[in-house]
Design goal:
The chain has six helices and eleven strands. It is an alpha/beta fold and about 170 residues long.
Length: about 170
C-alpha cells in the first residue's frame, strides 16, 4: 500500500541522504512530499549535487495528512529545529507513532521535539551524546529500528540499510 511521506528539508541537506532514500521510497510506490518554509523554493544540498523544489509550505500542511516523516541529514535538520513549526510537525509523528525515518543529523529535530526519551536510536557521531542527553539509548549501528516506528542511521554509508529498514516499516 502506497504511503504519503512528508520530508522536512531545507538548504544544506546531505545530498545523498535525500536522493538515495527518496528514490527508494518512490520506486517502492510511495509519494515523497518536500516541506519547507516556502513552497516552490529550490533548496540545494551541501555538496551542490542535488537541488529539490519544495512541494509545500510548512504553514499549509497538516501532519494528519501524511503516513510517515522522512528527515534527511546534513545541516538542514539543525536549521529546521530553530523553527517551532517544524519541531511541532515532527513531534506529532512521534507522538502518534507514525513511521519516522531520520538519518545522520536528522534526529536533531527529534531531540528538540523532546521525543527520544526511552527510545533506541542512532545518528551521526557528533550528535550521539546529544541524543543520550535527550534520553535515547544510542547504538553505534548502521541502522536502528525502535518499536517498528523509528528508523535511524548514522551517515551516507548506512543508506542501503536505512532504505531497507525504512521500507520494512512502511509496509
Amino acid at each position: 500500500m502506497s504511503k504519503k511521506i512528508a520530508c522536512v528539508i531545507t538548504d544544506m541537506f546531505e545530498d545523498v541522504e535525500y536522493t538515495g532514500p527518496a528514490k527508494a521510497f518512490k520506486e517502492a510506490g510511495h509519494e515523497v512530499v518536500t516541506i519547507e518554509k516556502e513552497k516552490g523554493k529550490k533548496v540545494t544540498g551541501k555538496n551542490g549535487e542535488a537541488k529539490v523544489t519544495i512541494d509545500e509550505n510548512i504553514d499549509d500542511v497538516n501532519p494528519d495528512n501524511y503516513d510517515a516523516l522522512f528527515i534527511p541529514g546534513g545541516f538542514s535538520p539543525d536549521q529546521l529545529r530553530a523553527d517551532e513549526r517544524f519541531v511541532a510537525f515532527s513531534k506529532h509523528f512521534m507522538d502518534v507513532k507514525k513511521p519516522v525515518l531520520a538519518i545522520c543529523h536528522g534526529p536533531q529535530l527529534l531531540i528538540t521535539a523532546k521525543t527520544l526519551e526511552g527510545r533506541k536510536a542512532t545518528g551521526f557521531k557528533s550528535i550521539q551524546v546529544d541524543m543520550e542527553y535527550a534520553g535515547a539509548t544510542v547504538k553505534d549501528e548502521e541502522v536502528v529500528v525502535c518499536n517498528n516506528q523509528l528508523v535511524t542511521s548514522r551517515n551516507p554509508d548506512d543508506i542501503p540499510a536505512f532504505n531497507r529498514e525504512s521500507l520494512n516499516v512502511l509496509k
